[in-house]
Write a structure and sequence with these properties.
Length: 102
């Protein structure tokens, strides 16, 4: 199944409150901001093969409603997007994100 099909099947988000707190403390990214990127375009995503030993992980490059550019690592469990980590995009990721929209 490709990523577009996988995301279209998702019915919402599932949050581990420990992860949500850690993301906020470490990177100042709120759960709401993480969720917003999935509804804004462009949304760039790919398999995170390096970290997919126990379950399939993916990463997404997207922007919040406030135009903040985020790098989000996530998995899909029972048709729910589960965010594992999130932070601001670095320079290389911003370049890839903007090039994807050309």
């Amino acid at each position: 199944m490709n990523m577009h099909s996988l995301l279209k099947k998702c019915t919402g988000f599932e949050w581990d409150m420990h992860n949500a707190g850690k993301i906020w403390q470490k990177h100042g990214v709120s759960p709401t901001e993480c969720e917003q990127i999935y509804f804004n375009r462009p949304l760039v995503f790919a398999d995170d093969l390096k970290h997919s030993e126990e379950e399939n992980r993916f990463y997404a490059l997207g922007k919040t409603d406030g135009r903040r550019l985020l790098f989000v690592v996530f998995t899909v469990r029972q048709d729910k997007i589960r965010v594992i980590s999130a932070r601001d995009m670095n320079r290389k990721e911003r370049k890839a994100y903007y090039e994807s929209d050309e």
